[in-house]
Amino acid sequence: MKELAELAKLFLKLGTIGFGGPAAHIAMMQDEVVKKRKWIDEQHFLDLIGATNLIPGPNSTEMTIHIGHERAGWKGLIVAGLCFILPAVFITGIFAWLYKQYGQLPEVQPFIYGIKPAIIAIILGAIFPLAKKSLKSVELAIIGFTVLIFSLINFSEIYLMFGAGFLAMLLFSIRNKKLNTAGTIFPFTLLQIANTSIFSATNLNLFLIFLKIGAILYGSGYVLFAFLDTELVSTGLLSRQQLIDAIAVGQFTPGPVFSSVTFIGYQLNGWSGAIISTIGIFLPSFLFVALLNPLVRKMRNSKLFSVFLDAVNVASIAIIIAICYQMGKDTITDWRTILIAVASLALVFGFKKFNSAIIVLGGAGLGYLLSFL
């Protein structure tokens, strides 16, 4: 089927060159899916970003699954999700094997040094048109600015998302004198999975641990590592050094940061542990998106929930801008990174059809060359 082949080709590519975390992945998807291929319009893409932020799990993986569902139904959902995840899992698996064999990770820092400034430019290039699309009123602009401020002072993303949405609904209801608290039902309920006692590092235990984390985790990859510290390090299954090395692998490999779990699973129980852990952490995302995707258009067609979505979309953009600011503060620290960032911004905004993959690879190469100066 043509649509499935197109999805497989696109998301295998993005899964292979998708450095920089969820914000960067979503920026690349916007470039490929909205601008180049026109599979989804900007408004619906924004709605999917907002909806994705309302459910637990890795945001960029869930956006991939949404796009797959939009393009080719449930088959597309599976193909897109797997093709985005598998390159990261494969690369992480190789690093896990090398780590087990030699007790250390290969030196990749010079490449990452150049990739990060380039990634910030790509995110800003994608966010600019989405931000213009999302700011439909002064009210939404104020909500977005408020979310940006609170995000910069490390307020919880999930509170900001739902808070923005419900504030907009409240204002809409007051303005239209249709406030009905019985009618404004909390749109989503979180799946809660009971804590599982861990007696040994069997595959069943690994599956249950990572299934639970995948089903209830909101926020960035750093929140994931806090969960892993509680579930694995505190219980003695994993050393803190192994967790730190898993974090490093998640940061410098492409694709979703949740692929760090593949590394951890391998350390605990070899290849079978790596596979079962990976399935456990990503399975909830497929289920959540399958349930949520049909509701997004229905929400957009409802006046009240359309207001909710608009506010969540603005909040999503504000949080991504805050992430860019934090990344820039941590990354752009000397003349080399400034040079890479400026060159990347010039390409992103000056040549809008320039492929983001080339910018990523160019940043890596430039970072490597400049590291000798």
Question: Could you describe the 3D structure shown?
Answer:
The protein is mainly alpha-helical. The chain folds into two domains: 2-188 and 297-370, no CATH class; 203-285, no CATH class. Helix content is 77%, strand content 0%. The chain contains 14 helices and no strands. It has helices at 2-17, 22-36, 42-53, 59-102, 109-134, 138-152, 157-175, 203-216, 221-233, 240-252, 260-301, 303-331, 335-350, 356-370. Helix 1 packs across helix 4, helix 5 packs antiparallel against helix 12 (303-331) and helix 6 (138-152) packs antiparallel against helix 7. The longest helix has 44 residues, at 59-102. The model is unreliable at 179-201 (pLDDT under 50).
Ordered list of secondary-structure elements with their pairings:
Blueprint: H1 2-17, H2 22-36, H3 42-53, H4 59-102, H5 109-134, H6 138-152, H7 157-175, H8 203-216, H9 221-233, H10 240-252, H11 260-301, H12 303-331, H13 335-350, H14 356-370
Helix pairs in contact: 1-4, 2-4, 2-5, 3-4, 3-11, 3-12, 4-11, 5-12, 5-13, 5-14, 6-7, 6-12, 7-12, 8-11, 10-11, 13-14
